[in-house]
Amino acid sequence: MFRLQGSKVLAVDMTQDAVKAKNGSMVAYDGEMTFKKLSGGGEGIRGMVTRRITGEQMTVMEVRGQGTCWFADRASEITLVGLRGDKLYVESSNFLAADAGLRTGTSFTGTRGASQGNGLFTTTIEGHGQAAIMSDGPAVVLRVSAQYPLTVDPGAYVAHQGNLRQSFQSGVTFRTLFGEGGGEAFQIRFEGDGLVYVQPSERNTIAGDV
Asked: Which residue windows are transmembrane per the record (predicted)?
């Protein structure tokens, strides 16, 4: 069972089951726990190939046992996401933990990944269970509907779920609109029905001032 203690610490209560978490994110535990390092970027041969092509740096550990384990990373804010057979797309740097029964993998993101400097792939989490994602500041959850598409600064993007289509727009950015940046950059446009998680702080990007 996932629960938050404050907004920056995740507590996971385990009864001989397991959780996947960002390597090195364990801050304390009680009871009996074992820790096993897993490969990041997906499961199986496909995940191995993807990691080799993209240079994916995310590493994940499996924690198994009886008791409570606490996770945190650089005092980031944590948001819990419930999955009911759907798929969550999350930047590798924003992933904290997921039920061990959830399937993890990678998905091609194309231009968005290149514009963020995070590679061309993003992490996917799919199945039934809970996941925990991190953000620089409290995450804001925005609804996308057929009537209300959403455009997001790629530096603020954290994750999304639901039946959403992505497209990428280049040109004027929010900062250049106010004379605070220059050069070409990208925006992400979401259409369909789903949720988008954004953070109130922008990560550094390499495709212009975003």
From this structure: none
Write out pLDDT tens, residues 5-54: 999 999 999 999 999 999 999 999 999 999 998 765 445 444 444 444 44
Digit-coded pLDDT (tens) for 104-122 = 888 766 544 444 444 456 8
The predicted model scores a pTM of 0.80
Among residues 86, 68, 69, 181, the alpha carbon closest in space to that of 129 is found at: 86
Q: Where are the beta strands (DSSP E) in the chain?
A: 2-4, 10-22, 26-38, 60-71, 77-90, 95-99, 103-108, 121-135, 140-144, 150-152, 157-171, 185-198
Are the CB atoms for 72 and 25 separated by under 8 Å? Answer: yes
* Alpha carbon distance 146, 149 (integer Å): 6
Q: How many Cα atoms within 13 Å fall on the side-chain side of residue 114?
A: 9
Q: If we measure between CA atoms, which residue out of 32, 186, 68 comes closest to residue 118?
A: 186
